[in-house]
Design goal:
Blueprint lengths: L1 H23 L4 E5 L4 E3 L10 E6 L5 E6 L8 E6 L7 E2 L10 E6 L5 E6 L8 E6 L7 E2 L7 E9 L5 E8 L7 E6 L7 E2 L13 E3 L5 E6 L8 E6 L7 E2 L10 E6 L5 E6 L12 E6 L7 E2 L9 E2 L5 E2 L5 E7 L6 E7 L7 E2 L9 E7 L5 E7 L7 E6 L7 E2 L7 E8 L5 E8 L5 E8 L7 E2 L10 E6 L5 E6 L8 E6 L7 E2 L10 E6 L5 E6 L8 E6 L5 E5 L8
Antiparallel strand pairs: 1-43, 2-42, 3-4, 4-5, 5-6, 7-8, 8-9, 9-10, 11-12, 12-13, 13-14, 15-16, 16-17, 17-18, 19-20, 20-21, 21-22, 23-25, 24-25, 25-26, 26-27, 28-29, 29-30, 30-31, 32-33, 33-34, 34-35, 36-37, 37-38, 38-39, 40-41, 41-42
Length: 556
């Protein structure tokens, strides 16, 4: 509202000024960014209190956070409207002595918060659900526990209807199982897996996009051998094994589910096993187990391996990328392959220099391009490249010519048109600056940050959801003081400072951008040194108002 009033007032002033020009001659003016509305969201009551974690709901209406806001070292759960229109409210019930909230998740529909806490019984972790606005008390989701507790990982289905969680025994030798329960607690939990017979924790698990199945890793059949299983989320059928038989000492290490919820892609030592390396093969299999797994990767050399952490599926669920080293010391390269294995994998990166290799990679949201950092053309120099995911044309270098600098991080805009990246000098990145470049390399890079303070650096950055602006934290105005800035992604307007005036010794610690692009929420010791609190500031969206200088009468 404040900015709208500024704009309307400025428009009226512009009309008056134009009338003055008509009568008296030309005048001059400059453009200034509109003042931001800076709001404190948290309400820390104790000197030692701190924000532990915070999230913005998907609909951008609430901020949920963990903090020892009321009692030192007692972490509790709070919710506050993003615009600060009402004070924060506590979401958890009264905690037992020694109790605290350990973690939480917000449902995709932004209505509920699920949290894990030893709320009712000391040292017994349980799972609760509560409306995000605190309109009703929390309900317990798990069933009665005897010498058991809710494990650290739990997930809410994308349709916000179900919660899947783990139950652990009180000792490492006790059994473990996976359960599902309605988010509203309307029915009792359903056991999805048999108790693991070997007392080992379940590995990772994920709920499929359509909410029908849960895929998980477990040594369910053989002690110490992790394999991949799928089970209906409603418990209507027993789990089925997704991977093919494993070689002796082989196992499944990682997996992902495609965005359409139909396929699981996993990395394993299924046919070849080199214990010292990560994985040797990549496979794709229907999540319902209706067909056998298909091998996707090329045959590796005797000392080759695939980086387990590099597996990624395109958003359209059509292709898989991964990083692989054919032979030891041969150089890590970037591969792309259809998820159905219909054609052989292709290498996306260019020819590597001696000692070169690909370091990081990411697929654009439209599934057309892969952006990666690699030592490709110059030994020891990390640079930024883009290549079509299907390998139809060669990779393009995106960064400007570098000497002693290197590209350290990047993010692709959600409209898949731009790449924002940081360039730092030296091995320890003593100076890092922020640039943007078209993903196809059709024009040169533009610097986004302002002039940095002496020895200053851009610490972190994020692109907003509509790909119009970049928010970044940097030591820009004062040495050793990290502040928050917003700049148009094209760099055509100067950066705008978002945080309020920081107390002596204060810094911005972290930040998030709301999905509606209207708010930046940040954590800072802005008012009191070493007391971190939450603040929200309206994103400027590039709006400006006219600030008029004295009229200069001409002789014309």
């Amino acid at each position: 509202m404040h900015k709208q009033i500024c704009f309307q007032t400025s428009f009226k002033l512009a009309i008056v000024a134009a009338f003055v020009v008509t009568i008296f001659g030309w005048f001059s003016f400059t453009t200034t960014m509109a003042e931001n509305n800076n709001i404190k969201l948290s309400d820390i009551q104790i000197q030692e209190g701190d924000i532990v974690e915070y999230q913005i709901s998907a609909d951008s209406s609430y901020v949920v956070y963990l903090a020892d806001q009321d009692t030192d070292e007692v972490i509790e759960l709070y919710s506050v409207p993003t615009d600060g229109s009402t004070p924060p409210i506590k979401l958890n019930s009264t905690l037992t002595t020694g109790g605290w909230v350990g973690s939480y998740k917000i449902s995709a529909d932004s209505n509920q918060v699920v949290y894990r806490a030893n709320q009712d019984v000391a040292y017994q972790w349980e799972l609760y659900s509560v409306p995000i606005d605190g309109s009703t008390p929390p309900i317990k989701l798990n069933g009665p526990l005897v010498n058991e507790y809710v494990g650290g990982d739990y997930q809410i289905s994308t349709d916000s209807s179900q919660v899947v969680y783990q139950i652990y025994g009180s000792t490492i030798l006790d059994t473990i199982a996976l359960y599902s329960v309605p988010l509203d607690g309307s029915t009792s939990p359903i056991k999805l897996t048999s108790m693991a017979p070997f007392g080992n924790p379940l590995g990772d698990f994920q709920i499929g996009a359509d909410g029908s199945h849960v895929v998980y890793l477990a040594d369910q059949d053989t002690s110490g051998v992790d394999e991949l299983y799928s089970v209906p989320i409603d418990g209507s059928a027993l789990p089925i094994k997704l991977n093919s038989p494993l070689i002796n000492e082989g196992d499944v290490k990682v997996f992902q589910i495609s965005a359409d919820g139909t396929q699981a892609v996993y990395g394993a030592s299924q046919v070849i096993n080199h214990v010292i390396h990560e994985i040797q093969e990549v496979y794709s299999v229907p999540i319902d187990g209706s067909a056998s797994a298909i091998r996707l990767n090329e045959t590796l050399g005797s000392n080759g391996y695939i980086r387990a952490s590099s597996l990624k599926i395109s958003a359209d669920s059509s292709r898989v990328i991964y990083l692989s080293e054919y032979e030891s010391l041969s150089g890590v390269e970037l591969y792309s392959v259809p998820i159905d294995g219909s054609t052989d994998p292709i290498i996306l990166n260019g020819m590597l220099v001696s000692g070169g290799g690909v370091w990081k990679c990411q697929i654009s949201a439209d599934s057309s391009q892969v952006v990666y950092i690699a030592v490709q053309d110059t030994a020891g120099l990390l640079e930024l490249y883009s290549a079509p995911i299907d390998g139809t044309i060669a990779a393009t270098k995106l960064n400007f010519p570098l000497t002693n600098e290197g590209v350290w991080s990047f993010e692709i805009s959600s409209d898949s048109s731009q790449v924002v990246y940081t360039v730092g000098e030296g091995d320890f990145v003593v100076l890092s600056e922020l640039y943007v470049v078209p993903i196809d390399g059709s024009s040169i890079s533009t610097k986004l940050n302002g002039q940095l303070a002496q020895n200053g650096s851009v610490q972190s950055f994020k692109i907003n959801e509509n790909s119009s602006r970049v928010v970044y934290a940097a030591e820009q105005d004062t040495t050793n003081v990290i502040e928050l800035y917003s700049v148009s992604i094209d760099g055509n307007t100067p950066p705008n400072k978002l945080n309020g005036v920081l107390t002596s010794g204060g810094n911005v610690e972290s930040f998030l951008i709301s999905n509606d692009n209207n708010w930046v929420v940040y954590n800072a010791d802005q008012d009191t040194d070493e007391m971190s609190e939450l603040y929200a500031t309206e994103e400027p969206h590039g709006e400006t108002y006219l600030q008029y200088l004295p009229i200069i009468i001409t002789n014309e």
